[in-house]
TrEMBL record:
InterPro entries: FAD-bind_Monooxygenase_sf, FAD/NAD-bd_sf. Its EC number is 1.14.13.-. Signal peptide: none annotated. It comes from Dactylosporangium vinaceum. The keyword Oxidoreductase applies. It holds the Pfam family Pyr_redox_3. One of its GO terms (molecular function) is monooxygenase activity. This is Flavin-containing monooxygenase. Residues 485-505 are annotated as: Disordered. Keywords: Monooxygenase, Oxidoreductase.
């Protein structure tokens, strides 16, 4: 039963929602609820169950620093293992009492008169002083409007909503997209299907993958000497962070990695014509760099055909490629990504003055530290605008933001009517700085489009700097002003409190 009131409402029980829940409890805060629309926790790792789903960031880094897992079986873990890790956090940190699964949030509005968020969820409402949207940047699947799709008589599914009840064995399958998801499921389904058409609009840069099993001896070491795992985590972090030099500071250096990728392709693709079609026409790093040892070998199999360009049309039992050739199809799989910068959720969060996030953003999501927006008091978004990474672990960004949010919440003190809001000036300066830093990066100069770019052409997805700089900035909360709640005896007006002093942290 969802309570009618909680001090803090967290929306979403994926990586970020669980992380903030753990840290809230560790900070001694008990009056909070986590609302999750899915029947279980895990977020992206709950929903993405496609064959071959595996994290492309090493697990020692792609896990919470305060909840290490010495039991990872592979350096890059599979989906089931990551999901089990996240599910394990519930018991490990006593989150069950806070967690409400199967509860969809329809929207939330700031009620100025009552100084609270009214969250519409599960058919009722919850009032909260603080609202934390841990809704993830990649949770709304995109199915492109391919002409004629509604006529298709075969089976369709999106990679993030895999239909395990549909047997692909012996089927003629069209897979659309060549991003991080498709590159994992295409090799996994290729041996089973009769024919596989891979629709490639833009070729990805693909690197050799260094995944390997973690030995029993290593796991023993991590169990008995946690410091050893922290050391590995640090080394992985430093290795990933080194990519910032090429992505952000000196894109010219990325040519060396392009050579590695080309050699990787040559090793597996003998056909020069196919190699040419698979060679990207933009700078490496501009789109997400993809690791796979199976992608090219799968594309070279005789039952696979790469169709370049977007589909022209879908018919009842076939698809028509960009060149006008028709291919019979029993199923279409959409590896076509997510609404990363135009999530519908932003329409459902309404701040002071009745404006939604979407209305304020006008197609260009911006936030202070990816978390807070003027006009949205006591509201924090986790993994909001410009917190994405082209190179590292999102979990690092989550933890940085979570600590920031905890510090900000502490400034509210015990006053349940206190209101905290980011100063418009700090927010504007922060985003101007992001835009300036973005200039000259590989995402700006690399000659590609990607889901990081919003409807107005702004890169709203990525953090364009070292991640430790993000963390360092996130330690400060001086960009917020705090209004104390009305005096209990006066019943009206705001009482100036000590936290009103500017610059107080
Ligand atoms: O989605 P994407 P994804 N006709 O948006 C193509 C994370 N992730 O699900 O490049 C034809 O990257 C589109 O083509 P183009 C990770 O952050 C992480 O693969 O736009 N094609 C592209 O090829 C990742 O970045 C892991 O020209 C169409 C593809 O669909 C993010 O999720 C694993 C099309 C979409 O690629 C999203 O990855 C998997 C059309 N009409 C995913 N419309 C980890 O391991 C779109 N495309 C952590």
């Amino acid at each position: 039963m969802v309570p009618a009131r909680a001090r803090i409402v967290v929306i979403g029980a994926g990586f970020s929602g669980l992380a903030v829940a753990v840290r809230l409890r560790q900070a001694g805060i008990r009056d909070f609820v986590v609302l999750e629309q899915a029947p279980g926790v895990g977020g992206a790792w709950h929903h993405n169950t496609y064959p071959g789903c595996r994290c492309d960031i090493p697990s020692h880094l792609y896990s919470l620093s305060f909840a290490p897992n010495p039991q990872w079986t592979h350096t890059y873990s599979g989906q089931a293992e990551i999901r089990a890790y996240l599910e394990g956090l519930v018991e490990r940190f006593g989150l069950a009492a806070h967690l409400h699964t199967g509860v969809a949030v329809d929207g939330a509005a700031w009620i100025e008169a009552e100084r609270c968020w009214r969250v519409r969820a599960g058919g009722g409402t919850v009032d909260a002083q603080v609202l934390i949207a841990a809704t993830g940047p990649l949770h709304e699947p995109v199915v492109p409007a391919v002409p004629g799709l509604e006529r298709f008589a075969g089976h369709t599914m999106h990679s993030a909503r895999w239909d395990h009840g549909y047997d692909l064995t012996g089927k003629r399958v069209v897979s659309i997209g060549t991003g991080a998801s498709a590159i994992q499921y295409v090799p996994a389904i290729q041996p089973r299907v009769e024919r596989l058409y891979v629709v490639q609009r833009t070729a990805p840069w693909v690197m050799p993958h260094r995944n390997r099993a973690i030995s029993d001896r290593e796991r023993w070491l991590y169990r008995h000497l946690p410091f050893a795992q922290r050391l590995v985590r640090g080394a992985v972090y430093a290795g990933r962070e080194a990519l910032v030099v090429g992505f952000v500071k000196r894109p010219g250096l990325l040519g060396r990695l392009e050579a590695v990728s080309r050699a990787h392709m040559r090793r597996h693709i003998a056909d020069a014509g196919l190699r040419e079609r698979l060679t990207p026409d933009y700078a490496l790093g501009c789109k997400r760099l993809l690791p796979s040892n199976e992608w090219y070998p799968a594309l070279a199999r005789p039952n696979v055909e790469v169709l370049t360009g977007a589909l022209r049309e879908v018919r009842r039992h076939s698809v028509v490629d960009a060149g006008g050739v028709e291919h019979p199809a029993d199923a279409i799989i959409f590896g076509t990504g997510f609404r990363a910068t135009d999530a519908r959720f932003s329409e459902a969060v309404v701040g002071r003055g009745g404006l939604s996030l979407a209305a304020v953003w006008q197609g260009s999501p911006t936030a202070y530290l990816g978390a807070s927006v003027p006009g949205f008091p006591n509201f924090f978004k986790l993994l909001g605008p410009n917190t994405g990474l082209g190179h590292g672990s999102m979990v690092y960004m989550i933890e940085s933001q979570v600590e920031h949010v905890l510090r900000a919440i502490r400034r509210l003190g015990a006053d349940e009517r206190a209101v905290l809001e980011v100063e418009p000036g700090a927010y504007d300066r922060y985003n101007a700085e992001i835009d300036a830093r973005m200039r000259g990066t590989v995402w700006d100069t690399g000659g590609c489009t990607s889901f990081y770019i919003d409807a107005n052409g702004r890169n709203a997805g990525l953090w364009p700097d070292w991640t430790w700089r993000f963390r360092r900035r996130a330690r400060a909360t001086g960009a917020y002003t705090v209004r104390a709640g009305p005096h209990p005896l006066s019943g009206v007006g705001a009482r100036p409190g000590p936290s009103d002093r500017p610059g107080r942290r």
